[in-house]
Write a structure and sequence with these properties.
Chain A is built from no helices and 11 strands. Chain A is an all-beta fold. By secondary structure, chain B is an all-beta fold. Classes of the chains: A mainly beta (113), B mainly beta (111).
């Protein structure tokens, strides 16, 4: 069964450093998303991406965050200057169309120290 | 702000019992999805319901979407230890398909 692949599975970074989280969505999917889940809290929407541009972003997704789909297969989330409160599981997801359910990746656990 | 309230948050039952998890909102959703999430993994889609009043069955799991498309329920018949896990409901409302998640229900089924 097709999968959404995320790397790395775990990243530890120092506060103020830049991190890039990588995702390879399912190849025929058109809609791409990033969500995050702080330990013990709800899964929260960050950003949606369609047709090579951001289609919606949440209040969490401020100027420190950016997304890219540089080569038609990878989908990245960059955090420019990490804060302690950015520590969370970050999930990439994709889907074929808006009426279908999502396929989520296994996540990247980001720990900011 | 759209919110999905999921209840109960924790449920511990004996094997063979039935249970229902509820997902309620004051907002209308175009679709509602149920996921199951294992520790350290991403949510895995169980079902998507789209039409008000829709009922879908997945073996011993029955999912229902409310007539007004504001609420949903997940009913498990004759629960088994393998059903143990975190169940999440999530509503989609915008054109982009952004999901609003409930806080989840942690189910423990004891043998």
């Amino acid at each position: 069964e097709p999968e959404v692949t995320q790397t790395p599975s775990h990243q530890v970074t120092q506060m103020g450093q830049e991190v890039i989280l990588r995702c390879v969505p399912i190849s025929n999917h058109l809609y791409f998303y990033w969500y995050r889940q702080i330990l013990g809290q709800k899964v929260e929407f960050l950003v949606s991406f369609y047709n090579n541009e951001i289609s919606e972003k949440s209040e969490i997704f401020d100027d420190q965050f950016s997304v890219e789909r540089p080569d038609g297969s990878n989908f990245t989330l960059k955090i420019r200057s990490t804060k302690l409160e950015d520590s969370a599981m970050y999930f990439c997801a994709s889907r074929v169309g808006t009426a279908q359910g999502y396929t989520f990746g296994s996540g990247t656990r980001l720990t900011v120290v | 702000t759209q919110l999905l309230e999921q209840s109960p948050q924790f449920l511990s039952i004996q094997e063979g019992e039935n249970l229902t998890v509820y997902c309620n909102s004051s907002s209308v959703f175009s679709s509602l999805q149920w996921y199951r999430q294992e520790p350290g993994e991403g949510p895995v889609l169980l079902v998507t319901v789209v039409t008000g009043g829709e009922v879908k069955k997945l073996k011993r799991l029955t999912f229902q979407f409310g007539d007004a498309r504001k609420d949903s329920s997940l009913h498990i018949t004759a629960a088994q230890p393998g059903d143990t896990g975190l169940y999440l409901c999530a509503g989609a409302s915008s054109n982009t398909g952004k999901l609003i998640f409930g806080q989840g229900t942690t189910l423990q089924v004891k043998p």
